[in-house]
Amino acid sequence: NSIRVFAPATVANVACGFDIFGFAVDSPGDEIVLRKRDKPGVEIIDIIGDEGRLPREAMRNTAGIAIQTFLQHIGSEQGIEVTLHKQMPLGSGLGSSAASAVAGVFAINELMGRPLKTMDLLPFAMEGERLACGSAHADNVAPSLLGGFVVIRSYNPLDVIRVNTPDGMHCTIVHPDIEVNTKDARFILKNEVSMKNTITQMGNVAGMIAGLMKPDYDLISRSMVDVIIEPVRSILIPEFNEVKQAALDSGALGCSISGSGPSMFALSRDAETAQRVGLAMQAGFLAVGITSELYVSEI
Ligand code: HSE
């Protein structure tokens, strides 16, 4: 009658793949507990770890809305009590809203006897994203739900592909102690992209996938370049260029903004490099008095 589910944080965009690339990490992540009850309706009983900042009303909460739309879809009036354990920072660029929505919809599907396949849960988790930041992008929810590195080839119809990554490849995430709202970070983007930048970006997207699949580390490294989004958004992150350079100087294959920021991520061939890269990135932020959290994870 009850279930506990963990859903991981994710790095969206992965430099060149705005709204189409994302991968999951081992930690951090969110945990949700759902309990069946007799009274119909979805009720959020408690949220732990958000310092009271997230909406408690189910239809205004990313997990709540994902659960509610799922129940409507399967035609169930089952009453549900929700307890959410936020175990990652809000507004961090680590897919916090996505992890809650994914945990919620995965949990309710299990609790109801698994009426839908995992892949078919995506649209419900995307509703959570629409609520949280005004756009139903899938590059956080898809990797959080499916694990690994994911490509959103198409949104309409939804076409999601899992891509293998080289053995031992590690991700470094550094979350500086500042907040960037995804809605704002999307608002500042230009609506038009030049032909020249489109061609460069398409080359990098193709190169990235080929690099991961071959695998070819130099190709991955050359492809981790974003000429469209990063130049605009990096102004929201103090010391962005210095921190990125510190990562590259320490042996990272590439470094960019995680999702809409302010977290920055880097990819490395192995765990030791990823750890060294993380310390160098943290030192870059600390040089201007910004403290940060470091997460290193195999991808
Ligand atoms: N692709 C989205 C963006 C991810 O960059 O706005 C947000 O986490």
From TrEMBL:
Residues given in the record as ATP binding sites: P89, L90, G91, S92, G93, L94, G95, S96, S97, A98, A99
Enzyme class, one word?
A: transferase
Superkingdom is Bacteria
Query: What EC numbers are recorded for this enzyme?
Result: 2.7.1.39
**InterPro entries linked:** GHMP_kinase_C_dom, GHMP_kinase_C_sf, GHMP_kinase_N_dom, GHMP_knse_ATP-bd_CS, Homoserine_kinase, Ribosomal_Su5_D2-typ_SF, Ribsml_uS5_D2-typ_fold_subgr
Catalysed reaction equations from the record: L-homoserine + ATP = O-phospho-L-homoserine + ADP + H(+)
Q: Which residues form the GHMP kinase C-terminal domain?
A: 208-283
Q: Where is the GHMP kinase N-terminal domain?
A: 64-148
Signal peptide limits: none
Q: In which pathway does it act?
A: Amino-acid biosynthesis; L-threonine biosynthesis; L-threonine from L-aspartate: step 4/5
Is Amino-acid biosynthesis among this UniProt entry's keywords? Answer: yes
Identify its protein family: Belongs to the GHMP kinase family. Homoserine kinase subfamily.
* Name used for this protein in its record: Homoserine kinase
The protein's organism comes out as Nibrella viscosa
Q: What is the lineage of its organism?
A: Bacteria, Pseudomonadati, Bacteroidota, Cytophagia, Cytophagales
